[in-house]
Amino acid sequence: MRSFGTSLLLGLSLLLCVACSLDPQPIAYGEDQCHACKMMIADARFGSELVTTKGKVYKYDAIECLVPAYLEKGKNTFVHVLVSDYRNPGNLLDAKQANYLISEMVPSPMGRYLSAYRSVQDVRSQILTKDDRRLSWLELMQEFR
């Protein structure tokens, strides 16, 4: 039979291992709150997430809330930078590999008309007007500087 001290130590060790995970966490749509604007994260087409090198997870309701935090803290702060795939809501993509669209035909939660897609072909199929713009991650960073 284990002593109380041994059980407590085992429990604390397990808690520390779980707390130090560098894995992304699922976004609980309708429950989680945006770290930047404090709005409830409701639309699975736009949720996004940052995971720091220390395992801290920040969730956002829109890409336009995530990008300023990413730029402020610096790229070396994060092990995961994730955005929702607009065509597959709730499916998180590596933000640096994603393709972006700015289109007034695709309103986003914070009003920048910004959405993310897995492929260039997915973006092209979403472009509806001559003013729609396709962007890479690096081009998106320039939009916010």
**What's the total count of β strands?**
7
- Please indicate the count of domains: 1
Strand count, sense and closure of the main sheet?
4 strands, antiparallel
By secondary-structure content and strand pairing, the structural class works out as: alpha+beta
Strand order of the largest sheet: 2-1-3-4
Helix content: 25-40%
Report how far the terminal alpha carbons are from each other.
Answer: 60 Å
Shape: globular
Radius of gyration: 18 Å
Unreliable stretches (pLDDT < 50, length at least 5) are none
Number of helices: 4
Order of helices and strands: HEEHEEEEHEH
Overall pLDDT score:
90
Determine the oligomeric state from the structure. single chain
Structure summary:
The protein is α+β, with helices and mostly antiparallel strands. It has helices spanning 4-19, 63-73, 120-126, 137-143, and strands at 48-52, 57-60, 78-85, 88-94, 99-102, 114-117, 133-135. The mean pLDDT is 90.
Please describe the topology of this protein.
Blueprint: H1 4-19, E1 48-52, E2 57-60, H2 63-73, E3 78-85, E4 88-94, E5 99-102, E6 114-117, H3 120-126, E7 133-135, H4 137-143
Antiparallel strand pairs: 1-2, 1-3, 3-4, 5-6, 5-7
